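User: Run a structure prediction on this.
Assistant: Running it now.
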Amino acid sequence: EANMMNLSRSVALISLFLLPLLSFSFSVDNPTDRRVLVLLDDLSLKSSHSIFFSTLKSRGFDLDFKLADDSKLALQRYGQYLYDGLIIFAPSTERFGGALDSKSIADFVDSGRDLILSADTSASDLIRGIALECGVDFDEDSSAMVIDHSSFSLSDGDHTLIAADDLVKSDVILGKTKIEAPVLFRGVAHSLNPTNNLVLKVLSASPSAYSANPSSKLSSPPQLTGSAISLVSVMQARNNARVVISGSLQLFSDRLFRSGVQKAGSPNKYEKSGNEQFATELSKWVFHERGHLKAGSLVHHRVGETDEPAIYRIKDDLEFSVEILEWSGRSWEPYVADDLQVQFYMMSPYVLKTLSTDKKGMFHTSFKVPDVYGVFQFKVEYEKLGYTTLSLSKQIPVRPYRHNEYERFIPTAYPYYGACFTTMAGFFVFSFVYLYHK
């Protein structure tokens, strides 16, 4: 009896210990990441970047700060991931501690979880390798920085503090409130892999920018120049995991958050840079607080019916619908769009229809089954900038008419029916005349 009581107490204690972890866990009904591991190469970054971390905490994130070389680092235990998101603010780290390495981080993203990676001029080969896995290639010259003699902050002397305002035009990624002030950037340039169509520039350099060592004269033309330079990029993987890669760790710092800015050649002077708004809105996107869609099951039936049939007949009139909701950060809201389409597909789409919406999350249409029988699919493939990708399908066979389902007299065959009876009447008249008339 005493053993049973001790066992029940142990189970209760374990449940109490696991309860807060489970409440922060990632789920389909609550897609916002809550448990985030923050890797730092210096714990002083907790205070120098405190505003950025505070905005995450205020939105309900549970941040676990650890040094990048901590010997107890691990992303998963017993096959279960301990975190839903990862922030790496450790650009100079040559090797992670514990069980963490570049492969485990790639597996972390492959599992559908999210990553923020920030580099600077001290970026190690490890950090560069992780970025390369995501389709981002930092400048090979470790001493190079982004320099711009036209789009720099007037408070800067060597023109390496860039005042960038070439932002991606997407309300989903950067929010509906326009970022008025330029974003201050001091760091390294990177380019995007042209064969990777999943990666996207969200903050680009101006056409006058280039990547070089600011303390030495140019001996040869720089490899990265102009708008080919990306300052901050994002990637959304095919499994809808999201990654942010920044070439500047200072971009997230309190100093640049609070710093005033006046761009060279512009009369506008701002008391506060656009860094805080930019970083906050970008973090909302990467952690699925915005632009996350979910779809219900595909529903179809014949016109006038409600039950879903096991098979359709050619030329049947059918109705199709699907419910799509968008996560607002706190709850699921109806998604409204006019560019959602459904395909009735067999080897190629026989029917392609744009879905109408009732603005309550339900998308619907109706069409006639084509005069081709076989195994078809209802397919909804939806890809839109900033939103998670939807890929839905449902299989349904289509049969021809049965022998007793054809019309007795086919209207298009009336000329043939008339020809037949006319021939019979003519033969009768000819026979009568031939037999009874001299």
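Confidence is low (pLDDT under 50) at residues 1-5, 11-26.
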